[in-house]
Amino acid sequence: MKIDIHVHTKKTKSGDPDTREITPESLLKIIKETDVQILAITNHNHFDLEQYNEIVNITEDTCQIWPGIELDIVEEERHGHLLVIVNPENANLLSEKMDKLLQQTTEDDFNISIEDTIKHFDEMDAIYIPHYYVKKPNLIDEDIKKLSKNVKINSRVIKEATNSISAGIYISHGHNSIYGSDIQNWDKYIEKSNDLPELRLPVESFEQFCLLLEKNEPTINTILNQKKHEEIKINPFNDKEINISIYNDINIIFGSKGTGKTEILHAISDYYNSKGLKTDVFESNLENLEETYDIKGKNMNVKIEEMTIETCESEISELKSATEKSITSLSNYLKYYSNQITNQITKNITIKDFSTKDESNPKRKLDQSKEIFDKINSFNQFLDENKALENILNDDLLSDLKEMLDLTLRKVTEEYEKNFINANKDICPPLIKFD
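The structure assignment produced for this chain is given below.
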């Protein structure tokens, strides 16, 4: 039987989609097309007692309906969601409690701490299902430990996963886990119900489900006895006959290594083989199953030509003869990418492969004569402007110095003009050519 512990039937918060709204009649029609036999109504911060009673009455012969609510939990400024599902006998008490809690607020703004949640709801024989890990918004391990520590029965705390894979992972690591549809759109519920968890034991009531959570042995035995089974007698150890119950379901034999589980399986197989049923025993570490049952088909002999199937012999032969190419050395990679870079640079150079012309001598002489001219001319100006020098040098000496500088400057000027013509003669050729 399938169970859905997280169902919305109303749009109670502004962020809820309108497609969560559903009438009792429509819900019954949808549920009849599924295998869901237990359904918990958990609307956000809201419990509608009138709608709950209508759904209970209309689905009486189809599905168990459990009352619940999805609470916004705030713990040390952390926000998470917690499903609280109560005993159906306490549906009226749940309605009264929520009416009181919502007197000064709305469903959008309501939130409650873990401590207050336990205070208000634990008396209703409740099951607590916090969003866990990737099921957002989630309670962290610290919050869930606080919840488990303070409720009356800590086995009633179950972590809600997003799907069967997540739930399986949590369970394998020792966590009690379950998941529900958290339905957003009732038009998709039939398809979504295919992935809901399935109880291996038929649960007839909320109380019975809670006893299963507590692993109550009498309850488990009572439910098991309701399943179709037969008692058989086998003799796995030759010296003693034993009775064993075989259920029309998955049967698991528990026992540590060396306790005779394999012998019991062989005895059960022999029993049913003698009744005309074909059974096999698969043992680990005794034989290679691939070789025993030819799983890879090594011993299969089929002529596919007789089955009008193309053999593809040439293609297969070509594949078989294919070899890997030799690995390119790093040095070749370096040469290749170096050439690539060089070629790329070359493309960006518009002038290349031209012969150079030696312009160093005329140009250098021109620059040198220009530099000498500028320095002598500058010093000559310095003599004219510096009156203090006249007080140091006598008139004759100062006059000789200026005359010498003038002669030097004229000589440098002539050299500069000659160098200028030599440096620029290719650019400005003479207008008159003398023979």
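Interim note for the steering committee: The chain has a mean pLDDT of 84. Residues 360-424 form one domain.
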